Amino acid sequence: MRVNFTVNGRRYEADDVWEGESLLYVLRERMGLPGSKNACEQGECGSCTVRLDGVPVCSCLVAAGQVEGREVVTVEGLADFAAHRAEQHPGSGCAPGACGTALDQARRWQADPAGEEARETGELSPIQQAFIDAGAVQCGFCTPGLLVAADELLERNPEPSDADIREALSGNLCRCTGYEKILDAVRLAAARAEETV
Amino acid sequence: MDFLRPASWEEALAAKAAHPTAVPIAGGTDVMVEINFDHRRPDHLLDLNRIGELTEWEVGRENVRLGACVPYSRIMEHLRAELPGLALASHTVASPQIRNRGSVGGNLGTASPAGDAHPALLAAGAEVEAESVRGTRMIPIDAFYTGVKRNALEPDELIRAVHIKKADGPQQFSKVGTRNAMVIAVCAFGLALHPGTRTVRTGIGSAAPTPVRAKEAEEFLNAALEEGGFWDSRAIITPSVAKQFAALAAGACNPIDDVRGTASYRRHAVGIMARRTLGWTWESYRGNGRSTEGAA
Ligand SMILES: Cc1cc2nc3c(=O)[nH]c(=O)nc-3n(C[C@H](O)[C@H](O)[C@H](O)COP(=O)(O)OP(=O)(O)OC[C@H]3O[C@@H](n4cnc5c(N)ncnc54)[C@H](O)[C@@H]3O)c2cc1C
Ligand code: FES
Ligand code: FES
Fold first, then answer.
1. Cβ(B212) to ligand 1 under 6 A?
2. Residue A160, C-beta contacts closer than 8 angstroms, at least 6 positions apart
3. Ligand 1 atom 40 nearest Cα
4. Where is the 2Fe-2S ferredoxin-type domain (chain A) (predicted)?
5. How confident is the model at residue B178, as a pLDDT?
6. Where are the domains of chain B?
């Protein structure tokens, strides 16, 4: 079957998709976007977290056919997505279908190899920078899912309490168990955002 | 495998009639696990995501008509006042990512004894609106669960919505698990006070082959509250009454030993949760707050 959808602001057509295939598989194996990790394929770990029409979901549990015509943001597009949000919708996010990620950037953007533009410019989203600065990355396997989930939390709730952070990240497991540093990173990103306002 | 993508409810019903073995997929949080692990290879998947009305709800005078695919996170956010028991139960489901996709329609479709919506639905009082090309019928929630992971749906039927009684009094939900997030219930208990009819209703999860009400416990308590004039006096419930209620609730269980807990632990825990949820709801009926605060 064929599936058309938007990934990180770029229209994409996937062909010969098996009907039982997950969005995660399509992203990783058909689109060359291996940022979303496959660790459990049963919704337990959150390392495959992406935004589907703005909503954080486990991409391993979304059937590929269900994303027809919809918008997906993965960790590869997070820097662009955050930059667009900061420019166009300060203090909130895009309405699903309204503009996707930064359209100009997205048009120039090549999905394969993944994250090329981010790497070229070296620009990271604030949450990515905070993870690095706080030392919240060990093996890094859980990081992409955590970044997507944490970014969405801060979009919704720019000044989260510790309880809010724990709740928002409760679906993301870190096998290296670096949870304290991860909490630090989210607090750091929130504090930095407040400073710049 | 075929992937059916009906764009409307009528098309979905027609597709289900044409392919009665088609597996509906809503949030996919049960279906996709089975497919990813090769536990299920349906010949057809029937996607419900494109049918907008399934993710809507209507608040009527007596009921909330909850679309089958409304995700748990929306119930927590928007229906806390009308459906406090279900909102509390929703909050204990898995993780934010799962709650953003998983639905009560899917919970009913799976009909696992451990599904967290069930005790809340049983306690509040609910009917499942099942529809097929042949027509619509309302299935009382008590008659919906027919066996372990079996429900009363006919092969050509889909769940359109669940009609849940709006709370007319405090409701509580309690769940035993090893941690707060991402945990399948060892057992769970829902309780709703219905001051309008002067009745108490309950729901037990994960402690019998199907979700069940503790009917004997309800009857005993209803009689005791009536006789003692508790609904009018709003006096503290006599400890012996609460104790007997808990014992009868534990007796309503027919649990098994499994990796999550032993049968005797489950029976014991259900008794404790019955007593606690009664205490919490009654305190709030007496005017001492704590109506929507839950505990896991
Ligand atoms: C990591 C993880 C943790 C979980 N934790 C919990 C938990 O704590 N508590 C809990 O209760 N559940 C839990 N679940 C199970 C699951 O999330 C719930 O059962 C959820 O309610 C399923 O809803 P869904 O929309 O995703 O259903 P789907 O997976 O889409 O469907 C489930 C079943 O219902 C059928 N179905 C769906 N919609 C309809 C309809 N409208 N009409 C007829 N049949 C229909 C499907 O064919 C399928 O058989 C968990 C799942 C995962 C992956
Ligand atoms: S791979 Fe999707 S939740 Fe673990
Ligand atoms: S850093 Fe290794 S799993 Fe989290």
1. no
2. A153, A154, A168, A186, A190
3. B159
4. 1-78
5. 87
6. 52-290
The answer to whether B25 and A66 have CB atoms below 8 angstroms apart is yes
Structure token digits, residue B235: 């006096």
Report the complex ipTM: 0.93
pLDDT at B266 over 90: yes
Q: Give per-residue pLDDT as tens, B191-206.
A: 999 999 999 999 999 9
Question: What is the pLDDT averaged over residues A63-75?
Answer: 98
The single residue listed with the structure tokens 């079957």 is A1
Q: List the single residue in B with minimal CA-CA distance to A57.
A: B97
Cα–Cα dist A44/A148, whole Å: 16
Number of domains making up chain A = 2
pLDDT at residue A99, rounded to an integer: 64
pLDDT digits (tens, 9 = 90+) for B38-80: 999 999 999 999 999 999 999 999 999 999 999 999 999 999 9
Taking each continuous run of H as one helix and of E as one strand, the counts in chain A are: 8, 5
The range of the structural domain enclosing residue A157 comes to 78-95+120-196
B28 contacts A63? CB cut-off 8 A: yes
CA B225 – CA B231 distance, rounded (Å): 7
Q: What is the CATH number of the domain that holds A192?
A: 1.10.150.120
Assess contact for A75 and A36: CB atoms under 8 A.
Answer: yes
Q: For tokens 């039927």, what's the residue?
A: B157
- State the distance from the centre of ligand 1 to the C-alpha of B230, rounded, in angstroms: 39
Nearest to A128 by CA among A89, A88, A63, A80: A80
Closest ligand 3 atom, residue A176 Cα: 2
Tell me which of A3, A15, A19 to substitute to probe the interface with B (most B C-beta atoms closer than 10 Å).
A19
Q: How far is A67 from chain B (nearest CA, A)?
A: 9
The distance of Cα B18 from the centroid of its chain, to the nearest Å, equals 30
Sheet with strand B171-176: strands edge to edge: B171-176, B187-194, B199-205
Q: Over the Cα atoms of chain A, what is R_g?
A: 16
On the question of pLDDT at A105 being above 90, the answer is no
* Alpha-carbon gap, residue B6 to B3, rounded angstroms: 10
Reply yes or no on whether the pLDDT at A114 is more than 60.
no
Ligand nearest to C-alpha A172? 2
Domain B52-290 has CATH 3.30.465.10: yes
Residue B36: Cβ within 10 Å count: 22
* pLDDT value for B288: 74
pLDDT bracket for residue A98 (50, 70, 90):
low
Q: Return the ligand number nearest the Cα of A144.
A: 3
Question: Contacts of residue B2 in chain A, CB cutoff 8 Å?
Answer: 19
Contacts of A49 in chain B (CB under 8 A): 97
B181 pLDDT tier (thresholds 50, 70, 90): confident
